[in-house]
Design goal:
Length: about 160
């Protein structure tokens, strides 16, 4: 195979050899660009966009999480438990047009998942639960959705 290439090379004119070398260099540079450089720069741009998006989401959550903290639990006596926590949450969620996708009873409370809800509606519901029924927010994990003002509640832990 090498002998055939050598014979072909020696059988070509000097001008054809120069043209072949230039073509090989251009093809090599094009391969480097399309197989290495372009994917790396494209991936870098995508990662930078994801970083900007994550930073915006973090800023939005930090700004709006303060509203949840301000809603806080008011001090006072806890009411008699006439209704268990799951029933209370289901009833109040229905009244507030909040669709709970999953509710899981825990030893000292419940964990709730909500696929999509308007943030202010969620905030009003949590505030009402805290003020009227003395339900405490143990922890909350929320993500901003693509639609303005909408959130997804990955996990909301509540207890009496």
């Amino acid at each position: 195979m090498f002998e055939q290439i050598k014979d072909w090379w020696e059988g070509t004119t000097e001008r054809e050899q120069q043209l072949s070398v230039i073509s090989a260099v251009v093809i090599f540079v094009a391969l480097i660009y399309f197989l290495l450089w372009q994917p790396i720069t494209s991936n870098l741009a995508d990662q930078q966009q994801r970083l900007r998006s994550s930073e915006q989401t973090l800023q939005w959550v930090e700004t709006n999480a303060a509203k949840l903290v301000k809603a806080g639990v008011s001090e006072g006596k806890r009411p008699q438990r006439k209704v268990n926590l799951s029933q209370l949450i289901n009833n109040t969620a229905k009244r507030n047009n909040i669709n709970i996708s999953r509710i899981q009873n825990q030893k000292n409370g419940v964990d709730i998942w909500i696929n999509e809800v308007e943030f202010t509606q969620f905030l009003r519901w949590i505030t009402a639960l805290q003020n009227d029924s003395r339900v405490q927010v143990v922890s909350v994990d929320i993500n901003r959705q693509k639609d303005q003002g909408m959130i997804k509640v990955n996990r909301l832990s509540l207890s009496y």
